Amino acid sequence: MEFRQELIQIVDKSGAHPAWGTKHCFRVYHLAKELSSHLILDDEVLFASALLHDTGKYPVYAIKNVDHALRSKGVSVNLLQQMNFPQDKIPLVLDAVENHMYYSEPGRSDEAVYIRESDILDNLGNIGLMRLFSLVGHDELIQTPEQAIERARLFADALPDKVSTKSGKRIAIKRREETLRFLAGIKRQTAEFEMV
Predict the structure, then answer these.
(1) pTM (predicted TM-score)
(2) Which segments constitute the HD/PDEase domain (predicted)?
(3) How far is residue 132's CA from residue 48's CA, in Å, rounded to a whole number?
(4) pLDDT in tens, 13-25
C-alpha cells in the first residue's frame, strides 16, 4: 500500500474528532501547497507532516498531560519507520510535526514553516469557527458555546501575528475579518435579545 493511503487509513481509524481528522489534515496540506507555490517543497514530507501533525490528540495515541505536538512527533517516528518512509525525510517530517502549533517557533525547513502557517490559518475564519463550535463538550478548554466564542476572540487577536509569510498574512487578515464579523453579529444579536 502506498504511504499516502496508509496515512489516511491511520487517521480515519484513530478515533479523531472531525475537527482534527482527515479533512483538517487535507486542508492543512493543500493550503501549505498553495502558500508555498513559489517554492519547490518535498511533497512527501508535506503530505506526511499534514497527515501526522495532530496524531497525538487522537484517542488511539493520546496520553493525558502530554503536549499533543510532542506526542505526535513520537507517534510519527514509529509510524514512518514501520511503513518504510525514506529515512532521510523522517527528520523533516518530525520537525514539522513538533513545531506546528501557534505557540511554537516555526521549524527549520520550509515544509515545517508552511505546515505551521496552514494549521494556524485553519483555526481562523469560517472554518476555524466551525471547528471551534464542533469541539464544544469534546475539548477540555471548550465546554460551552461561550468558551468557543471566547476562544474565537482570542484566536482572532493572537493568531494573525503568528503567521510569518507574506502569502499567509494575506489569508490571516481575511480570516480574522470573517471571525470578527461573526463575533460582532453574535454580540449585536445577543444584546438585542436581552433588551426584549
Answers:
(1) 0.94
(2) 17-133
(3) 24
(4) 999 999 999 999 9
